[in-house]
Amino acid sequence: MDPTQNLTQRQIHILKAIIEEYINSAEPVGSETLEKKYNFDVSPATIRNEMVRLTDLGLLKQPHTSAGRSPTTIALKYYVGNLMKTKDMSVAEEVAVKEKIWDYRQEVDKLLREATKTLADKTKALALTATNEGDLYYAGTANILEMPEFYDYELTHDLLASLDQFDFWWKVLAAHEDPFYILVGEGPMSHGALSQCSFVYHKFSTPHVSGAIGVVGPSRLDFSTVIPVVRYMGGLIRQLGSNW
């Protein structure tokens, strides 16, 4: 049964607030924070009771070391699909991205390499491109070290080790038919430390090569800003690669 099916409007508002606070802070969110920053027009006790209810439904979890709560994978996917508003790129931002890779439009390898680097710079995350020719490009490995989740040695080790495994990432991409997809700790990434990661990618197809470009980060990736950039970059590769 889908735990999000019968949520009340109040529960939805509280869940959305917790997820957005968690995405911004990487810290479990306490009821005190919600009381101070959001006007729910209910008592602190009611907020706490709703948080308990959302935890019982499997949408929030409570780390042992904290009184606050963080969203589960189910809650994050619900947020992306139903509650989130994307922050679309401005025309100026699109032009700036296009200019970065425009000079490489005649050369497949250089274009994909530069597109991956540009995506990493723009999203401040780890960007990754895989092609049907067996190539794997990545950039922005230093970016993940800025994120508190990757202070965890095991998680960082497993993610960096996976960058040597083309077959792993191709398996991840091949698991879904959709040209655009968001993975949050599922499929091939549901096992081990990588279950704490998310992957947003866009597939592309050109006369010469097909594949996908995307962003890897913690489960609390800032989806609202990452998604539009990944979509744009995937479309741009397809457009520039149409003459290859």
Summarize the structure.
The chain is of the alpha+beta class and 244 residues long.
Uncertain residue segments: none
Under CATH, the homologous superfamily of the largest domain reads GAF domain
Quickly count the domains.
Answer: 2
* Class per helix and strand makeup: alpha+beta
Counting DSSP E segments of at least 2 residues, the number of strands comes to 7
The end-to-end span amounts to: 48 Å
- Assign an overall shape: elongated
SSE string, helix = H, strand = E? HHHEEHHHEEHHHEEEH
GO biological process, one term: negative regulation of DNA-templated transcription
Function: Negative regulator of class I heat shock genes (grpE-dnaK-dnaJ and groELS operons). Prevents heat-shock induction of these operons.
Family: Belongs to the HrcA family.
Domain Heat-inducible transcription repressor HrcA C-terminal: 98-227
List the helices and strands and how they pair.
Layout: H1 9-25, H2 31-37, H3 44-56, E1 60-61, E2 70-71, H4 73-83, H5 91-102, H6 108-123, E3 126-131, E4 136-139, H7 141-144, H8 153-162, H9 166-174, E5 180-184, E6 197-205, E7 210-218, H10 223-240
Antiparallel strand pairs: 1-2, 3-4, 3-7, 5-6, 6-7
